[in-house]
Amino acid sequence: MRQVALVTGSSRGIGLATAEVLAKAGFAVALNGPADNEELKSAVAKVSEYGGPVVAAPFDVTDCTEYAAKLSCIEDTLGPLTTLVNNAGVGVLQRGDLLDVTEASWERCVNVNAKALFFLSQSFARRLLSRKRDDERFYSIVNVTSSNAVAVAVQRSEYCASKAAAAMISRTLAVRLGAENIAVYDVQPGLIATEMTAPVIESYQKRAEDGLTLFPRVGTPAEIGAIITSLATGKLPYVTGQAISADAGMLVPRF
């Protein structure tokens, strides 16, 4: 049977690249964005070029009341889900002193980056545990957090806090779901060229060339998609609950 994945936040960036690599690997893929707009339709068309089943799944990831209906709709079209990629994420409303962080920016980061990840994973896991899974397919949750789950960016403190929460959620899910043979991973991208980082990517590239990362360059969404697909296809057997530092060695301690 074909594996079936839902990738949140997949109308562009890392999410779209991940959907593409999954489709190339033979997955049926549900692409998610907050609205059924032209960006999501374009993403669906792009992923459909790889020949596998693809469906749009527009919904607001922060609205927990939608999860059951949306997951059912995906399964009615593509078949039983095997894989959840929690990629949807937001940055801060404004970089600056943590003493000036607003409640609105805090809640935005936490609601999308941590709360939605927790409760969508909960809904997905409940669905899997409610039925027999004897088809030998690989089941997993892959959470996309950030290097800032462990490394401080003082001008984006609320973002760091939300990603640290997401990293801990990944570990708690792994502990709960291990006995059910559902793997959970935490992919922590470093300096990646996406729409979100576009305003600062030139400075990131310069810092990478100056030695911030061991490979002297920024990463690409396709590279993160390849990592996620390796995990989702069980290419790291006997591994769960681990953080994958996809950061070109940026956080390796050095003297």
Q: What is the CATH homologous superfamily assignment?
A: NAD(P)-binding Rossmann-like Domain
Report helical residue fraction: 40-55%
**Low-confidence runs of at least 5 consecutive residues:** none
Silhouette = globular
> Mean of the pLDDT scores?
97
Provide the CATH architecture: 3-Layer(aba) Sandwich
Along the chain, the helix and strand elements come as: EHEHEHEHEHEHHE
For the record, the CATH class is Alpha Beta
Strand count, sense and barrel status of the largest sheet are: 7 strands, parallel
Please tell me how large the radius of gyration is: 18 Å
Quote the beta fraction.
Answer: 5-15%
- Count of the separate structural domains: 1
CATH T-level fold name: Rossmann fold
Structural class: alpha/beta
Oligomerization: single chain
Task: Please report the distance between the alpha carbons of the first and last residues.
Answer: 50 Å
Number of strands: 7
| Spatial order of strands in the largest sheet | 3-2-1-4-5-6-7
The number of helices is 7
What can you see in these coordinates?
With 255 residues, this protein is of the alpha/beta class. It has one domain: Rossmann fold, CATH 3.40.50.720. 41% of the residues lie in helices and 13% in strands. The protein contains 7 helices and 7 strands; from the N terminus they run E-H-E-H-E-H-E-H-E-H-E-H-H-E. Strands 3-2-1-4-5-6-7 form a 7-stranded parallel β-sheet, with helices on both faces. Helix 5 (157-177) links the parallel strand 5 (139-144) and strand 6 (182-189). Helix 1 packs parallel to helix 2. The protein is globular and about 50 Å long. The mean pLDDT is 97. Its EC number is 1.1.1.100. Belongs to the short-chain dehydrogenases/reductases (SDR) family. It comes from Acetobacter tropicalis. Keywords: Oxidoreductase.
